[in-house]
Amino acid sequence: MTDTLEKQTSSALQPMLRKLGYWASLDSDDREAVLALPHTVKALSRNSYIVREGDRTSTSCVMLSGYSIRHKIVAGGARQIVAIHMKGELVDLQNSLLGVADHSVEMLTDGRVAIIPRDEVNRLAFERPNVGKAMWFDTLVDASIFREWVANVGRRDSRTRLAHLLCEFALRLKVAGLGEETHYELPMTQEQLADATGMTSVHVNRSLKGLEADGLIGRSTPRSIQIGDWRRLASTGDFNPTYLHLNERELA
Amino acid sequence: MTDTLEKQTSSALQPMLRKLGYWASLDSDDREAVLALPHTVKALSRNSYIVREGDRTSTSCVMLSGYSIRHKIVAGGARQIVAIHMKGELVDLQNSLLGVADHSVEMLTDGRVAIIPRDEVNRLAFERPNVGKAMWFDTLVDASIFREWVANVGRRDSRTRLAHLLCEFALRLKVAGLGEETHYELPMTQEQLADATGMTSVHVNRSLKGLEADGLIGRSTPRSIQIGDWRRLASTGDFNPTYLHLNERELA
DNA sequence: CGGGAGGTTGACAATCGTCAATCAGAGTGG
DNA sequence: CCACTCTGATTGACGATTGTCAACCTCCCG
Question: Rounded to an integer, what distance in angstroms lies between the CA atom of residue A50 and that of residue A54?
Fold first, then answer.
């Protein structure tokens, strides 16, 4: 824990290690094993798909830069975004371990991912229990976020729902070392915000302006969000970060 | 796989074994290890809580009989049910491994559960990789169901939403060996259906009657559901069982 | 300068929630 | 056996949050 100097800074999997190390303490053997995972790095452009619903995948992947989303299409063509992923996150344990993809994963922005064979992930998980626990923990936290999203779209009004998403995003960005809590750039259009919150883009626009009018957020450009009073925004968003299962120090 | 005669029929954990065996093939050592998990059986009455949001739990539990739900309370007191659990299901890997519960688990009916210390579950998972894989797989399927629920609540209209839930329930009951696909008893009130689908009880009632009026379901009593034409109900419910990740044979 | 994507706004419609009354069935005590 | 009570189901009238449609605006980029 204290010898934070990493030897293998050369591996592209550094962001994954950071993430796993966040959930469980890994010794140097664990870390080496993670960084030694065979993988190929791939640059992907916005709107390209990592996995399509129905695919049979046998690889997992880790976000190295950029953002991606998971989504489902319902009858009638409407789309629901069920998760947003950022640097370091394990994007597809989910689909790959289950065999046939029950949802699609799409790049939200340009970015790079590392592709890892599923079998290698599986092997590592059981050869190095610390790593396995971290990965398991990671999937459990993902599940926790899904649950919060169910509650968010199911039982909160649109204003609260949006504010909640803005809070979650802010905090996750901060934890991932990608931004401040006071200001960040949304990587998504209002239509995509709508698909994530079960609203329409028109209503997202109105709600966003509503939050702005009430001084809860500032927007120097449509996508850049400033949060003046975190407490107040969290309160209107009914945002309690417990479900993110962060370490104590992050919740200051 | 072929020698299906179980020796330890005495263990209360039989339903858990059935479930895990569904996800991965377990050899006889694996099975014995599962059944040998230390546990205490507890009878719980309807509306009693297994875990409350905010609790620090160090035990997991398995449903032996009856039904339970996971739910979250949002600002204003509204409730969202995020999962329904039935016999054999591992109800609380989720909360217990994560430390502090991000949601409550409540009995929907009278029933019995087996309480297992978290550490024992953890130990078993890594001592017997087959079992560990089955448990991991189980949590991934749970997550998949959460994703479907996000889509259900976020992007489907109330009629479709309800029909979807009825289909999911029917199929899961069948797989758990608890009923037929053509007829079953709902273990929940309309208010609870509402909390699961993000609706109000009044609207659940109307939608249910709507489905009935259109001949999609029959109801001899308010809670007993008959499904005449599965295809038609599945179609109006936009129900595609992929997300349940069942074995081929179950999807006939 | 033209085209396109995304953001903004208004008028209108509708799904769904709220409130409140009534009904039906199960369990209880007399 | 019957009133009484409680929970859950059902129904109607009404209101409002949110969706739909469509126009227009703004910025970016070739």
Answer: 12
- Nucleotide at minimal C1' distance from the B206 CA: D10
> CA of B23 to nearest chain A CA: how many angstroms apart?
10
pLDDT tens per residue across span A142-166: 999 999 999 999 999 999 999 999 9
Residue A29 placed within a domain:
yes
B200 Cβ within 7 A of any nucleic strand C atom: yes
In three-state form (DSSP H/G/I as H, E/B as E, the rest C), the secondary structure along B90-144 is ECCHHHHHHCECCCEEEECCCEEEEEEEHHHHHHHHHHCHHHHHHHHHHHHHHHH
Say if B171 falls within a structural domain.
Answer: yes
Domain count for chain B: 2
Same domain, B135 and B166: no
Distance, in Å, from the CA atom of B252 to the CA atom of B236, rounded to the nearest integer, reads 19
B55: region left, alpha or beta (phi > 0 left; psi from -120 to 50 alpha): beta
Residues of chain A falling short of pLDDT 70: 1-10, 252
Name every chain A residue with its beta carbon within 8 A of the beta carbon of B125. 132, 136
> What is the pTM assigned to this prediction?
0.96
Residue A79 falls inside a structural domain: yes
A191: CB within 7 A of chain C nucleic strand: yes
- Within a domain: A147: no
CA distance B194 to B147: 18
Q: pLDDT tens digit string along B42-52?
A: 999 999 999 99
To test the contact with chain A by mutation, choose from B30, B144, B155, B197 the residue with the greatest count of A C-beta atoms within 10 A, namely: B155
Q: Which helix (H) or strand (E) segment is B46 a member of?
A: none
Distance CA A225, CA A204 (A): 14
Residue B251 DSSP one-character state: G
Q: Are the C-beta atoms of B233 and B184 separated by less than 8 Å?
A: no
What pLDDT is recorded for position A8?
44
Q: CA-CA distance, A180 to A227, in Å (whole number)?
A: 10
Nucleotides on chain D that have an atom closer than 7 A to a protein CB are 7-13, 17-22
**Can you give the residue range of the structural domain that contains B184?**
156-251
B150/A151 touch (CB, cutoff 8 Å), yes or no? no
The verdict on A122 and A182 lying in the same domain is no
